[in-house]
Amino acid sequence: MRIIGGQFKGYRFSPPADKWPTRPTTDFSKEALYNILLNVLDFETTNFLDLFGGSGNHCYECISRGALTATYVDKFANCIKFVKQMSAKLDIEDQMTIVRSDVFKYIQHCNRQYQYIFAGPPYGLPTIHTIPDKIFEHNLLTDDGLLVVEHNPFVSYNHHPRLTQVRNYGQTHFSFFRPKSDRIDDQEE
After folding, report:
1. Does the N-terminal or the C-terminal CB of the chain have fewer CB atoms within 10 Å?
2. How buried is residue 189: exposed, middle or buried, by Cβ count under 10 Å (0-12/13-18/19+)?
């Protein structure tokens, strides 16, 4: 894996391969996602929340691009350990908050808002369809905030009232949501 842009552009890292509990976003799809985000986010005014954070890949990318803060949430001890080591290597500990928690418990008890939230849940998660509703129910996004959920082709949010667009990159799909939806008609199916 590598950091695509910003001050750490090109930095390569690998989580331990043995019994790694997550599925990282591929470099190809991550690069495509961040090309879109460059046109819709001002990273330098962004507080970022990474749900199901895994390797911390998205936190490093956002901070590299100038995000004010990144909050990382995952429940796996090996992931937490790896992300703490990476934040120390990149010297970004003062910008990162690392939380070991079940994502749904974190959402329920979170008392702050974010400009950008990325959720990369396990593709087989039985409650994957509830993620956008939980985030909106608990008011985790600012009024102009953006939520992106990564999922596979077997999940569809096409009837969600706050969905604005879907981008497909092979088996990786990104669904974009806003607190007030201005639905884009040219969604890729």
Report:
1. C
2. exposed
Rounded to whole angstroms, the Cα distance separating 130 from 118 reads 14
Cα separation of 111 and 89, whole Å?
A: 29
Distance, CA of 62 to CA of 6 (rounded, Å)? 8
Contact 112, 141 (CB under 8 A): no
User: 42-94, pLDDT tens digit by residue?
Assistant: 999 999 999 999 999 999 999 999 999 999 999 999 999 999 999 999 999 99
The C-alpha R_g of the chain, in whole angstroms, comes to: 15
pTM of the model: 0.92
